[in-house]
Write a structure and sequence with these properties.
With about 300 residues, the chain is of the alpha+beta class. The protein contains eleven helices and ten strands.
């Protein structure tokens, strides 16, 4: 099943890195999208020394173990962070398509005296993130979910960085900080199971509200923040049924309520629920309840 929350325009490999200098500081900044089939070449186990890297998982699954030995699940909508000086292990599951968006910044003060005043290994960007509260070293993996506006901004950063003048390059650090702030606002919890429940509750709320809507489910549930394939797996795991079955059962429950009211005939109930005809409504109603709508109405 296609992951409808991640458009194909973001499922490719495109990246850009630029060197920049600013007064007593120099560094490298980069943004990109990466796509791999099969074995992931960037699995990592050790102390990271590349500055800061934030990776937004768009497709695929894996795991991340932080410097404290805490394990996190990686799946679409997860955002993991590599921090210079901290050990971590990152591993992508084999034989799958993996797609990620990333941003990375590595900067250091050329003035050793100024560098010594920084809190984190002489890296000014990490120091700024810590001061602003957009980075929590104890939560290197967070779960903002898939957000199309966020993907669009990351894509814009790639395009703008390619054509930026030298004096404009330091400004991309602020754009990276804004992205991190957005990710932080989108993240409700750092607990993946709690996040999964949140996605499931949101999907159920949409289906309950749009009970008469005939929009295809992948489209109707596209704003939940995760792909339809993962959402379908969550429904089966937690409720034992698919999203389609959930919608049908809620629709039939509502049909029972309508039929219990004296003014609603079987034909009118079928029309309210947007069934193509009375026959299709009756067939589905009997499959769920064991009786026809007419039988149900006579008994109620």
């Amino acid at each position: 099943m296609k992951e409808v929350n991640v458009p194909d325009i973001y499922c490719h490999t495109e990246k850009i890195y630029r060197l920049f200098k600013q007064e007593d500081m120099e560094g490298i900044i980069g943004f990109g999208f990466l796509r791999y089939y099969g074995d992931y070449p960037a699995n990592y186990n050790g102390v990271y020394n590349g500055g800061y890297a934030g990776v937004y998982v768009l497709k695929g699954s894996g795991s991340f173990v932080d410097h404290n030995g805490k394990r996190f699940k990686l799946y679409p909508g997860a955002f993991f962070q590599r921090i210079t000086g901290l050990k971590h292990t990152m591993k992508v599951d084999k034989k799958q398509c993996w797609v990620e968006a990333f941003m990375g910044i590595r900067n250091n003060n050329t003035d050793s005296e100024a560098s010594n005043k920084l809190k984190w290994n002489g890296n000014r960007f990490i120091d700024i993130m810590l001061n602003l509260g957009v980075l929590d070293l104890e939560k290197p993996v967070i779960y903002p979910g898939i957000n199309l506006d966020l993907l669009h901004e990351l894509d814009l950063c790639i395009r703008d960085l390619k054509i930026a003048r030298l004096n404009e390059l330091p400004g991309f650090q602020m754009r990276a900080l804004n992205i991190l702030e957005t990710i932080k606002k989108l993240t409700v919890s750092d607990n993946p199971e709690e996040e999964e429940n949140r996605f499931l509750r949101k999907a159920c709320a949409i289906l309950d509200e749009k009970i008469c809507d005939r929009t295809p489910l992948p489209e109707l549930l596209s704003k939940t923040g995760i792909s339809y394939s993962r959402l379908r797996a969550l429904f089966r795991k937690e409720l034992g049924i698919s999203p389609g079955d959930y919608r049908i059962r809620q629709r039939i429950d509502y049909a029972c309520k309508l039929l219990s009211e004296a003014d609603n005939s079987v034909k009118e109930t079928a029309r309210i629920l947007n069934y193509p005809d009375q026959f299709n409504f009756s067939a589905q109603f009997k499959k769920i309840t064991g009786m026809t709508p007419a039988e149900f109405k006579r008994r109620h």
